[in-house]
Amino acid sequence: MKITAFSDTHMLxxxxxxxxxxxxxxxxxxxxxxxxQDVAGFNDFLATLPHQYKVVIGGNHDHLLAxxxxxxxxLLKDAIYLQDDSVTIxxxxxxxxxxxxxxxxxxxxxxxxxxxxxxxxxxxxxxEDTDILVTHSPPCGIMDEDGGVSHGCSDLLETxxxxxxxxxxxxxxxxxxxxxxxxxxxxxxxxVKDKNNRVRPxxxxxxxxx
Length: 210
Known about the structure:
This protein is α/β, with parallel strands linked by helices. It has helices at residues 36-47, 63-67, 69-75, 117-123, 154-163, and strands spanning 2-6, 23-27, 53-57, 80-81, 85-89, 92-97, 100-101, 112-113, 132-135, 145-146, 149-150, 167-170, 178-182, 185-189, 203-206. A hairpin with a 2-residue loop joins strand 13 and strand 14 (185-189).
């Protein structure tokens, strides 16, 4: 099974090179803090892609998805939209959660929660039999550094270590992009927009990772 993954297009999705695959996964931030037109436009873009299955979660810039999850399902009609939910595709259980710790006072804050009990309650919803975990936030210490600061979530890291999904996909931190195996899990930061607004290709890999 070939999986294509990307995140953090911020309305530049038409510029992203999208390799073919069986499952397309988007890990949040399709927009730039705007609303309905951004989501509808992203769905139109998804409709042009040949992947049989398309899975989408939100990110901290996707305010419409946060405020109107039911409308989000309607607008993203060419994808499977996940918000604290899972879907099983060809025997692979994929769970999506858009949350991230509050970033900074200047950041868009959709799906942003304080660290601690409230955030842990979201990660506690992740099923033990998850094969691919898709979050917008990185886990603490894994491709999450920006400006010398680790912005990932320590509670998310603990949850991933406990659940041990085969793959953990995320984005959010733009100066990292790549694949790193730690323990039983392969971590993939799949964001496509670097800090200089240059656009990277989406990542493509086999499941299970070879």
